[in-house]
Amino acid sequence: MPKPFSLTTPTALTSYAQYRLPYSDHYTTLRLRGAACVIDTLASLEGRQGFVIAPFQAGPDTPIVLLPASDGQVEECNLPSCEAQPGGRENLPAAPVPSAAYAAAFHRFSQAVRSGQFSKLVLSRSLTADSPTPYSPQTLFLRTCQAFPRAMVILFSTPQTGTWLVASPEILLDFQPPYFRTMALAGTMPHREGLPAWSTKNQEEQHIVEQYIADTLKPYADTLIKDGPRTVQAGPLMHLRTDFRFTLRPGCSVARLLCDLHPTPAVCGLPKEEALRFILQNEQAPRRYYSGFAGPLGLRGETHLYVMLRCLQLTGARQAVLHAGGGIMPDSILEEEWQETQQKMIAHVLR
Questions:
Q1: Which residues on neighbouring strands pair with residue 70, listed in sequence order?
Q2: At the top level of CATH, which class does the domain 15-192+199-346 belong to?
Q3: What is the spatial distance between Cα 122 and Cα 283, in angstroms, rounded to a whole number?
Q4: Is the peptide bond before 263 cis (omega within 30 degrees of 0)?
Q5: Domain map of the chain by residue range?
Q6: What's the half-sphere exposure (Cβ side, CA atoms, 13 Å) at 220?
Q7: Which of 30, 126, 179, 188 has the least CB density, counted as fewest CB within 10 Å?
Q8: CA of 312: how far to CAs of 106, 194, 211, 232, in Å?
Q9: pLDDT over 90 for what percent of the chain?
Q10: CA dist., res. 153 & res. 311, Å (int)
């Protein structure tokens, strides 16, 4: 398991988060002197404000943390108009064929789905990227903002979590008065001109996620509006996406809604609790904060929480661990799933 590695300045006890909303020309920085607050459960976020960081599965080594807005300094900065200085060329190991460890995990996941135990499972893997020059988190953040204008770009670093960089296309929960928003995002293929022909596997995977989101929102939502599915671009990749917009029923808890939404079938599987246990027991490496979520919660009256996809952890001055995953369905093919994760890593923020 990678140890938390801090690239914070000026001291290792400084916690900070930076984020750039999709299509925005500025970014926000929240800086806190000292370690961030540890939160026991997602339900304990009720009524709190600040920047929240939640792992795939909370535990002693991967706590839920919050940078409180009341204790930190919030600053708005314009993105530079000129191109950010490029970083070093990262070395991604060539991997044209599945590794033995991934193949073994795929067969376990595939067998569990084909047997009817699960309708879907998500299998992830990680990859270490080395750089000939030391990483500059701020430079990486600015590069990523330029490379992924449609994505939510996040850089955070705390003593509890280490340093992570995210370029996510997937909203978990967004609030800009008076509406909340979330989405179902599944299916992946390389970007191409024109309308793509989505495979049956991708369409079924998207339908499972969409139905789960719709069912989860029913107890919470008034005036629920669904739009999609439709094809969207995320960097050099394309996905199927369905958007949901709603108002929250009086007396309903935002924190409780987060508990029910996370993790969605887009990053976990169904049935949810059983799929979560299966993943924790059978994946090659711990996900840590990959496929968790992060973003401002109630900050200045708005919430922008995004699933931590297209993310990496900086584990050394010249080393990062990249993460990617894919949905396993009854007709999934080993080589195709491996290539999908390769495409996501190649399309990563270090490209």
A1: none
A2: alpha beta
A3: 10
A4: yes
A5: 15-192+199-346
A6: 24
A7: 179
A8: 22, 31, 29, 23
A9: 69
A10: 10
